[in-house]
Sequence to fold (519 residues):
Amino acid sequence: MLVNNRQSTLVGLSITGSFQRDTSLLFSDISFELKQGCWTCLLGPSGVGKSTLLRLLAGLSTGGQFNGQIRANPEFIAADHDNNQGTNDVANVISYMAQTDLLFPWLDVRQNIMLGQRLRHEKNSTLYYKQAVDRLIDQVGLGAHEYKRPHQLSGGMRQRVALARTLMEDQPIVLLDEPFSALDARTRDDMQSLAFDVLKDKTVLLVTHDPAEAIRLAHHLFVMTHNGIHNHQTPENLPPRQVEHPITLTAQAELLRVLKS
Amino acid sequence: MKSDTPISMQKINARDLAVSVLIILIGWQLVVWVTEIPRYILPGPLAVAEALVKYSDLLAMHAWVTAIEVVGGLILGTLLGIATAMYLTMSATATRYMMPILVISQTVPVFALAPILTLWFGYGLGSKIAMTILIIYFPVASSFLDGLRATPKGFLDLAQSMRATKFNTLIQVRLPAALPSLSSGIRLATVYAPIGAIIGEWVGASQGLGYLMLLANGRVKIDLMFAALVTLCIFTLLLRTVTNALCHKLDHWAGQSH
Fold:
C-alpha cells in the first residue's frame, strides 16, 4: 500500500468565520483550510451551503453576510502577475469552474478557452497565449474540435473545454463546484481522471454531493452538515483511487454511514 | 412550419404563399363577378392588375419615397433603441429616472402625434421618418434591454471571477448574449415601421404610397388605390424577408440558431 507522502503542511487557502443570510445562520465559526498542492473535497447534502462557501472563497456574490477571514498563501498573492486589479487579493489567485460548462455560444472552443484573456483585454502577448491554448487543447483531447462552437459538442467535450478554460487562467487555487455531476457515469469517470491529472499541481477544492467522487479524488476530505464542517479520514493510498478497489469501496460505505447519521 | 417558432419569425414557403394568394384572388374575382359590385367600391383583381401595369411608373416613384421613409426610420429607430438599452444597462441612475418616462410614454397613442410631427418636421421625409422612429423605438429598446438584463447568472459569475471590468462584461458578455432579443425586437419593428410611414403620409405629404392612396380615393380611382395597397404589401413582404435573413444571421452568430 502506498504511503500518503503528499501530505503537504503548507496552507493554500483558509477560511474562518460565520455566514448569515437574512436571519438564518448558514454556518457559524467554521474553520477550514486547503493544503497546498492537494485535492480537498467538501462533501455534503444539497442545501447545506457548500456552494455558498465556494462562492464566498471565489469572491462571488452570495446574498449574505460573512464575518471572518479568507486567506491565501502569501506566496500566491506575491506571484500574482497583475495583482493591481481589484481589491480582493484572494479572489485574484483563484479560478472557478461551475456545474454547468458556461461556454459562450457565440465563441468557438479556442475562444472559449481564452475567455479570461478576452475579458481582460490581454492582447500584448498573443503568441504566448496561442501556444498555451494549443497545449491545453492537446492535454484535454479536443484536437479535432478547436474551431467548433459549443452546440456542436457533447456534454463531456463541453466540460473538457470548461476545464481547459479553467486551466488557462493559470491560478494556483482552483475551485470546482460539482463540475462532473451533470455527466453520465462513464464520461464522469473520464473527466475525474483527466481533471485530477491536469490539476495535480494546484490547490484544489472540489465541492460534491457524491461520496464515490469524494473518496476517489480527495487527499483531504471534509463533510459539511448543518452542524458545521468535519474532517473525515481518507484512505491511506493516494488519489486518484481505483473505484473498484476494496479500500475505496469500504471507505465509501463508511462515508455513506457518516452522511446518514 | 415548425410550431415552436413564433409566427413573426416563421419562414414563408414561396410555393405555399403563391397557392393561398391565388385562391384569394380567384375568390375575390368571383365575388366581384357574381355580386356586380361597382368598380368604384371594389375593383376586381384583374382591374387592379391592369392599374398596376398602367400606373407602374407612378407607383414605383411613390413606393421609392415610402421605402426610404420606412428603411430610414427603421435603421435610425433601431440604433436609438440599441443606444438607449445599452445606456440604461450601464447606468442605474438613468434607469431610475428614464424607465418611468419610457413606460408611461407607451400609453400615448403615437398616431395622435402625427399632426405635431408634420408641424415640426414639414411635409417631406422628416416627419415620416420621425413617426416611424417613434413607433419602433420602444419595441427595439425594451426587448434589447430585457435581453441585456437576462444574461445567464453563471456567465456573469464567470466574468467576475476572471476579473472582467463592468464595461468589458457589457460588451463581451451581456451584449452578445442579448443579440437574439435584439433580433426579435427588430423583427417586431419591421412589422410596425411601415405603419408609421403611412400614417405620416396620410396626415400630410406630397409623395409616398399613403399619399397616393388618399389622392386616388379623392379622385375615385379606386383601382389605383388598390394598386398602391398591393405595392405596399409587396414592399413590406420584401422588407420582412430581408430583415428576417439579417436577424437569422445575427442569431446564428450569437449561437442561438443552428
User: Anything to note?
Assistant: Residues 180 and 191 of chain A are 7 Å apart (CA to CA). The longest strand of chain A covers residues 24-35. The radius of gyration of chain A is 18 Å.
